[in-house]
Design goal:
InterPro entries: NDUA7. The chain is mainly alpha-helical. The protein has two helices and no strands.
């Protein structure tokens, strides 16, 4: 079976050394100003609170 090089179409593949993209800043480039950042349920998780203790359950 002949060897089939995966890069046989090197002219159609983009170069690996490309400059980083220049994306303009928008209203959401800072996560603290994003609306869903304040409503994220994962950030509102707290440690569990004690509702009843064993003494209260035994006393009835």
């Amino acid at each position: 079976r002949p060897f089939d090089d995966g890069l046989r179409y090197a002219d159609n593949i983009s170069a690996r050394t490309q400059p980083p993209p220049l994306v303009p800043f928008g209203p959401y480039h800072k996560s603290s100003k994003v609306y869903y950042y304040t409503r994220d349920a994962r950030r509102s998780v707290e440690s569990p609170s004690v509702i009843y203790t064993a003494d209260q359950l035994e006393a009835g």
